[in-house]
Amino acid sequence: MAVFQGWSYEEILTPSVDYYSLFEQGMGQSEARTAFRFTDNDGHLLSLRPDVTSSIARVAATMLSRAPRPLRFCYAAPVFRQQLQSRAEWRRENTQLGCELIGSNGNTSDLEILLVAAEILSRLGLNDQSIITLSHAGIFAGLCNDSGLDQDARLEIQSLLNSMDQAGLRGFFDRNQIAKEVAESILLLLQLSGKEEVLTQARKSITNSESVAALDSLQKIWTVIRSLGLENRFSLDLADVSGLQYYTGMIFKIYIAGAGYRVGRGGRYDGLTAKFGAAEPAVGFVLSLDTLTEVLSRHQVNISTETTQGRTVKLEDLKTTFSEALARRARHDQIRIEVPD
Amino acid sequence: MITVAIAKGRMQDDALKLLGKAGVHLHPTALASRRLAVEDSSGDYRFIFVKPMDVPVYVEHGIADCGIVGRDVILETQADVLIPLDLGIAHCQLVVAAIDKDVLTRSLGMLRIATKYSHLASSHFGALGIPVEIISLSGSVELAPVLGLADAIVDLSETGRTLQENGLKVVDVITESTGRFVVNRASYQLKADKLTRFTHSIEAALGLATK
Asked: pLDDT tens-digit profile of A176-223?
């Protein structure tokens, strides 16, 4: 939480019990179904919160609709989900640590969220043992829109891509007589994981404007990551197409050694607040605090709990742009930095 | 080091042969011993031999970085793992078999189905709208209809011989299965270099040389 504070995120508390329809709208039907549900006196379906983001999107679009933007929120709160018996992610109650940046668009806000995540990991001493994988929802969406695939086909391809099932994908393309170029470029996504060179490779065969715009935006993000000297901590995984009913732009996942499953995920979800009021750009991420503490206790890392008493500086007052503040912060750490845009 | 979980039994020999072609060799004496975890000659890989149903468990939890196991098992356990390669080994079918070929259409009551694949069996009959009672067994499933424990079974069949020898006939084929190379989601990212190299060498061994 100290990291969040350093980046000016305010802690927010949301209700533990809320109407199920909130989460159904916020998370999409299939994810919301993992929630524990029960009824109110008047028959309304209630739920123990399966996520915090939905509630934050609602509060931003309603109660705080007139508050100055951008809004920066963070939270550490338990969420409740039903789990399959065999899952590596077996907890039904899980403490999520997360943050949301609402009302700010573009690569700088994407980058801010990524840097917050990276800073948390390095404070935990996990620099060498963690990786943040980046992708962009626009790449797959562009491929699909360009080739006119229907919704059912998209979902099927998405789930096959999600498990990297090459044989399954080939079978699906054959059965449904998907055009060869489309099939090839989707299969290519499976090969596209690595560092910056992945983007160059992708450009060779992916040419539709939507996907190219997505690649451009990843390129910009990567350029800054590289200039901050953080390229060991990040990688690109363009086959990551999970949660696309939710995310609209950059998406990322966080993995640490010792945990078999991702410990966090995040991305840009510009469509979400529209469900509760006005559409606004938004980006955020969550970390599973329980998995983190479990792995850290096995690593026997001593987490420093000391916090330094700092003063709050209002950037607006200083009339500096965010990029400058970001740059200053990095230069303070004696890192050479060049911020585009 | 990369830890590879291999399904014991049916698939083990084919899997090791394939790995041999991919340049990963196990010492014969290590194999002959009863140790369940052995290292290959280069020391880059550690192999663990576990029951097929347990392979997805080890891989999903990241205890094994990758593994070789049948598609049937992946479907049954609903494991959340990456499935980058179809190895084409140990091909078989998951079938419904019974003594009486018409058992499904004749019975209007609850059918008793004996199986090791309770999840796949119940979803298969659920989709057909046939009410069934699943009896979970862990082996020798073919015996169940013979002794009257069940009306039919859902089981793997490679050649159909075991079924035939126990007087059972194939009523329906639920799905086909072959050995798959599975990878843990976190390992795929954290040990990207090694695992990609390993995947490519297996792919090359399969004769699917990558472009």
From this structure: 888 888 888 889 998 888 898 999 999 988 888 999 999 999 999 999
Q: Which of A85, A90, A163 to mutate to test the interface with B (most CBs of B within 10 A)?
A: A163
Q: Looking at domain A2-332, what is its CATH homologous superfamily?
A: Bira Bifunctional Protein; Domain 2 (3.30.930.10)
Task: Let me know the angle formed at the C-alpha of A9 by A7 and A12, rounded to the nearest 5 degrees.
Answer: 165
Nearest chain A residue to B187, by CA: A260
Q: What pLDDT, in 10s, does the model give residues A253-311?
A: 999 988 888 899 999 999 888 888 888 999 999 999 988 888 888 876 555 544 444 54
Strand A282-288 and strand B66-70: the pairing is unpaired
Residue to substitute from A90, A162, A166, A205, interface B, most B β-carbons within 10 A: A166
pLDDT digits (tens, 9 = 90+) for A111-135: 999 999 999 998 888 888 899 999 9
CATH no., domain B2-90+178-205: 3.40.190.10
Domain boundaries defined on chain B: 2-90+178-205, 92-176
Q: What is the pTM of this model?
A: 0.81
Tokens 């090969």 belong to which residue?
Answer: A191
Separation between Cα atoms, residue A92 and residue A35, nearest integer Å: 10
**CATH number for the domain formed by residue range(s) B92-176:** 3.40.190.10
